[in-house]
Amino acid sequence: MTDLACAHCRGTNEDRLWSGDLYRVVLVHETGFEGWARVIWNTHVTEITDLPAPQQSMALQAVLALERALRAELAPDKINIASLATGMPHLHVHVIPRFRDDPTFPEPVWLPAQRSSARVLPEGFADRMKSRLAEELGLSGPL
Amino acid sequence: MTDLACAHCRGTNEDRLWSGDLYRVVLVHETGFEGWARVIWNTHVTEITDLPAPQQSMALQAVLALERALRAELAPDKINIASLATGMPHLHVHVIPRFRDDPTFPEPVWLPAQRSSARVLPEGFADRMKSRLAEELGLSGPL
């Protein structure tokens, strides 16, 4: 099912780290929160428990693989995981590396910024993430 | 490992729906968000990927069971799942039923309230949740 009003259905202008038949993994470029990534289900599904059980496991394995890859690459102070999509219900899971100097630490990323942060991703980050995810999740389709 | 400064290590004054050797499920009584529940790991673990793989699966199966039970009992407009614990890193996962008239809908629950909400849980809710979780997760220990 596709909803043309839904940005996650359209899936344009995404910086993809991995892409498959059922879901993709994208890098979100949010100032002060570089490294923020998402697992986005390809079809317009509302809740993870709407999926057949094997696909629920696949979605969660992707989230765990993404957490492992972000920890290995960035060594964040904390990882945040969130599946919200309250206003536009298309299943996607945020995996967000948190650092003591990020704009809202230790509060949730959705709160107003308490400070600015100039953190940038290390050189080659996206390529190494792609390799790590391919190793954990299998070959990626066309990104 | 236990950290006496950590409320989730102490685990006092909790309204428990399920309790086992590795984790428990508790009901949070947050005004306007009744039905908000948490899976709390019993030991002071920072990230889900710090757990051995079988325990990662157990934690996630508990989250899915909790989502299914909340959907069956409350038919919310949306479910939010979040594992944050940014300031006090003790693994716990929020499973939050969202309703169009809740205080922050469609924004995250951590944002300022836009309205008040007098939603109350249906009679017998906690008992039915306990039964559903026992059926899905096995027998509970002493609550």
Explain how this protein is built.
The structure is a homodimer of 143-residue chains. By secondary structure, the first copy, chain A, is an alpha+beta fold. Helix content of chain A is 27%, strand content 20%. Chain A is built from three helices and five strands. The first copy, chain A, has helices at 7-10, 53-74, 125-137; strands at residues 15-19, 23-27, 37-41, 78-83, 92-98. In chain A, strands 1-2-3-5-4 form a five-stranded antiparallel sheet. In chain A, a hairpin with a 3-residue loop joins strand 1 and strand 2 (23-27). The longest helix of chain A is centred in the middle third of the chain and has 22 residues, at 53-74. The mean pLDDT of chain A is 95. Chain A binds chain B through residues 46-49, 56, 60, 64, 67-68, 71, 78-87, 89, 93, 98, 105-108, 110-111, and chain B through 46-49, 56, 60, 64, 67-68, 71, 78-87, 89, 93, 98, 105-108, 110-111. Strand 4 of chain A pairs antiparallel with strand 4 (78-83) of chain B, so a sheet runs across the interface.
